[in-house]
Amino acid sequence: MKNKTVWPDRLLAALITLAVLASVALAAAAYTNPGMLTLSPAIGSFFVLRPESVTEEAISDYAGVRRTYSFDLSKYPYISGRSLFVYLRHTYATLELDGTVRADTGEDPDTPHISCTPGNYWLSLPIGEDNAMCAMTVTLTPAYQSVRDVTPTFYLIGRQPLLTMLLAPTEAALATLALVAVTAGLFLMLLALSLRLERGDRERTFFLGAVTLAAGLWKLSGLSSVPLILDVYGRQKAIWFVGALSYLLMMVLSLRLLTVLRPGGNKRLGKVCCYFAAAAAALLMLLQALNVTELHDVLMWYGIGMVSLHLIALLGEKPDRRELFWLLPTFLAMGVDLLIYLRAGSMSAAPVFLAWIVLNLFVRGFGFLREAVGRGRLLRKKDEELRDAQLQTLVNQIRPHFIYNTLATVHVFCRDDPAQAMQLIEHFNDYLHANFTAITAKEPVPFDEELRHTKAYLAVEAALYLDALSVEYLTEVTQFRLPPLTLQPIVENSVKHGIAKTHRPEHIRIRSRRTEDGFEVLVEDDGPGFSAGAAETGGEGHVGLQNVRERLALLCGGTLNVAPCAGGGTVVTVFVPADGKAR
């Protein structure tokens, strides 16, 4: 018969394949045809302004240099209708036209703290006919020494042509890749939380998605096109902060992923490294909030420290192939991106690391889900086996000779004692109803319900043996649950190996009590007893007890023990943990 449960795997594989192909097609189309991203046709030309002069002023507080660029706009005909655009990174700017300040982005240019920097942004100013012949000066004050020698480019161009003609050809591929990482990472995280996965599968899938999401946000925030699109909201500084925090979290989440990839118990060193990384990230954010340190100045050192922690977590304990396959290429990709960044001066030209992360998400994420689905099938198979066990228990409990004997006794009572016959029929009806109801119960039932079932069975047996069977109930503790058909098969076993075999009167005592970590039910009889070893192994005549033991372990993590009583007979002890969870 064809297995119909394969289709979720095939559907998931098809969706992931379509997502990858769509992402590649979009990136290729955006790269080869930048104009596709604009809502209106791009104008055909733009100007790059050359300064007439550049003056420098040293900033003694942090060895920076403030530069003033002077321009004569009258030398650029046909500039009316365009705008001035300058991309600045952590740099304060003041723009003047004929001595009048038209733009000022610095809260306090002499205080080079990241909390005061405008972040990465585009300084822009529309140029109209009234100022096309003006003299223009732009004063730039870098917030950090690392950006003090950057020479900006001054464009006279429209917003849409700037985006589609200049930025899209160089950033479209990385922007598309970053967007795919953000959306796919978020999707994988939500999928891990929504599916009923085991803890290990859920953690691996979730943290792989989280690392990809953080990496995508980090790369996306470093693109010059992002603040150009979002600068109408005045959130340039927030964009950079999101990128910096994503970078911090990416390193912590990567260590967490490395930890959950470890098999078995070899996770202690990885957890210590992960906690240390999280504490370091939290400390840096706190110091930033207090203006004690600047994230921009410590991000590279933080990255070097995190790489060291990754190596310690990886090599401190014997790594397996899965860990090596994840981490070593990751280091290589980060190193290649760093070399590209040092050469080009921009992260927009360094897509190797993000491409590796996205590839891992689609390839390994699908693998994680496939393994989880496979394990889910095993769990469903166990559920089916448990259901079969319950069905077998029901079949075992409804024995033909027991039914025949009960009906024969009812027949006799109908002639000699009609009232007793009616009571016996009522008990027998309760017994059958409880048996048939038990097969539909998928969860543990209240002890009171199981006790009523057992009392109905014992009432029938007592009638069959003409009251030679006596039962004592000491069940003050009843506020707990246990699997259906747990107690009744145990007392039936006592009857079967007691009065039914010896034909001597038998006394059964049923007790329940609270323990430190759960509940106990004890069934004691004064019969001839039997081998505890046979009961433990489910030997001949004791299949019912072995069945109860297996269902106790599967449904609530309980146990069943058989032992001889001090004065003769047998005691069967059922333990149900307080939390009622399978172990």
Describe the global form: rod-shaped
Oligomer: single chain
- The number of distinct β-strands equals 16
> Structural class, please?
alpha+beta
Main sheet record: 5 strands, antiparallel
Mean pLDDT score, rounded? Answer: 76
Radius of gyration: 38 Å
| Strand numbers in spatial order across the main sheet | 2-3-8-5-6
- Proportion of beta-strand residues: 15-25%
Low-confidence stretches: 1-8, 30-44, 537-541
The helix content, as a percent range, equals 55-70%
Structure description:
- The chain is an alpha+beta fold.
- It contains 16 helices and 16 strands.
- It has a 5-stranded antiparallel sheet with strand order 2-3-8-5-6, with no helix packed on it. Strands 11-13-14-16-15 form a 5-stranded mixed sheet.
- Helix 5 packs parallel to helix 7, helix 8 runs antiparallel to helix 9 and helix 10 runs antiparallel to helix 11.
- It is rod-shaped.
- It starts with 6 loop residues before the first helix and ends in a 6-residue tail after the last strand.
